Amino acid sequence: MADNKTTLYQHGTLALLVPGLLDGTLKMADLLAHGDTGIGTGEGLDGELIILDGTPYQIDSNGRVNLVSANFMMPFANSHFADYTPLMHVDQITRPTLQRRITSKVASANTFYSLKITGTFTNMETRAVPKSGQPYQSLAKTAANQSHFIRETVTGTLLSYYSPQVFDGAAVAGFHSHFLADDHDFGGHILGFDQVTGDVSFQQFDTLEQHLPTTNTAYMGHDFTQDDILGDIHQAE
C-alpha cells in the first residue's frame, strides 16, 4: 500500500457533517494505514488535523498544537502517501494570485490533487472548532462557535487538497487547506492569508478511495434529502 502514490483516501464525506453526524467512525491508526500526509477533524468537530511525515497533529479551539494518539476518532479525514513534485517558487504572492497560477499551471481541474507549500506567510488567519457532544447540532451551528487565530508573520507548511466541482458535497469543491507552523505553536483550517514566499509542490491523484461509516447507525439511517448540503458546506468552509 505504501507504494500507491496516486490514490487519495477519504473517510466519510463533508455532507455527513452537515446534519451533525459527528460521531468518530475511524481511528487515527487506521487513517495512517492509508497515508503519511493528510487533514481532517475529530469527533464532534474536535479541532483541525494535519498530518505531516506520518505525524498527526491537532490544533484545538484554544490554539494549542497537540500530538494525536492512535485511538483518536474522526468523522471525516483525507490521507495519502506523499510523493510531491516541485512546482514553482513564489515570492510575496497573494492567495488569489497563487491559486490562479497553480490552477493554470497544473491543468487538473477535473481530478483530485494535493499541494504542499512551505514558506513564510503574512497575516495568516486560521480557525478551529471546539469539541461538541451528543446530541450534536448541525455543522452550521457547531462551526459558529469556532475560534479564530492570526499571525502577522509565520513560517510553516500549508497542506491543501483540491477537489473537482463534480465532487462538491463529498468534499468541498476547490481548495481545502490546513496549516502548521514550523515551531508547532500555531495552525488550523486556513481562512486566509495576504502573501506567501516559499516553495510550492504538487501531487496528482487518479483514484479516490471513498470509505463510508457503514457500521454507524446514525449515518446509515439519515435522510440527506432534507439537508442543504452544499449551502451549509460552503458557509462553514
Quick synopsis:
With 237 residues, the chain is α+β, with helices and mostly antiparallel strands. The protein is built from six helices and 15 strands.
Task: Kindly describe this structure.
With 237 residues, this protein is an alpha+beta fold. The chain is 16% helix and 44% strand. The protein is built from six helices and 15 strands. It has helices spanning 14-17, 28-32, 95-106, 139-143, 217-220, 229-236, and strands at residues 7-11, 26-27, 37-41, 48-52, 55-59, 65-67, 73-74, 76-80, 85-94, 113-128, 147-163, 174-181, 187-192, 195-204, 207-211. The protein is globular, with a radius of gyration of 17 Å. The protein starts with 6 loop residues before the first strand and ends with a helix. It comes from Levilactobacillus suantsaii. Pfam families: AAL_decarboxy.
